[in-house]
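agent> Task received from the user: take the single chain below, predict its 3D structure, and emit structure tokens. No templates, no multimer pairing.
agent> Plan: (1) validate residues, (2) run structure prediction, (3) serialize to tokens, (4) report one or two observations.
agent> Step 1 OK, no nonstandard residues flagged.
tool_call: predict_structure(input=
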Amino acid sequence: MHANTRDPHIDFARQELLLVAVILVAIGRFVGSPAWFAVVGLMPPVILVAGSAVLRSDERPGRPFIPLLIPAVLVGGAAAAVHIVPPGLGLVPALGVFALALDRTLRLELRLMVQATGITDSDRLKLVAAAVVAAVIAFTGVACLVPGGLPEPGTAGVSAGQGGGTGTALTPAWLAVIAGVDAVLALLLGFRLAAARYGSATDALRSALTYAIVVAVAAGAIRALEVPRLIGPAALTLVFYLWDAIHATAPARRREPRFLWETILLAILAIGVVAWNINLPS
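)
tool_result: status=success, residues=282
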């Protein structure tokens, strides 16, 4: 199918996914603790399963999960991050911004699904931009739901989000939750970007694992440095972007021995950051 040909099935699928996602995020805003972790956690799988079903067609007999990774992370992240928006009319523009971001991402991914010419350098840049937007929203959402995840300036471990009340300290257990969930999110987004860069799923997964390790290490380091409020999620997003930029500059490096050593060094660094955080005062 030609890249410029409009497929009514694709347009209808996009509209369906967009409507379902906005409804899910709106519902997620009014889900209270402790149910919000389960509700928010289920949203990305729901988008993946539902999206792969509506995008399936005679021309695409398989279930296209990879193009839905960024939208799925964006939906789950928005459902969590929307908790920083006070209930009321302020929720309307927040949902509008989310809908716009998701619609642009879906348009890009669905166009790439039917594009006969393959992914161009311009397309890759747009994918990176979509992944960065999803990352900052998702990292913010995780911090919002975790007690002490958004510390106030000058009060280490104090939460500003609904997930933890004012004065709630970030415990080592919750730190592990933040680092683990952020790592999973980086794995999904990294795999999508790597899949657009590498021809092999194995190479893409190997690359995605390094995204996860780097973000997990950064999450622990940011906690140790007591970075306040939304600066933490923004810094994690910057780390994610810079790591992608490093991988994008040398695609042949994935077959070099240093790729394995790089992963080992990241694991050692992760152990060091964990030890550092364990020794921090509560």
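agent> Step 4: summary for the user.
Residues 119-282 form one domain.
agent> Done.
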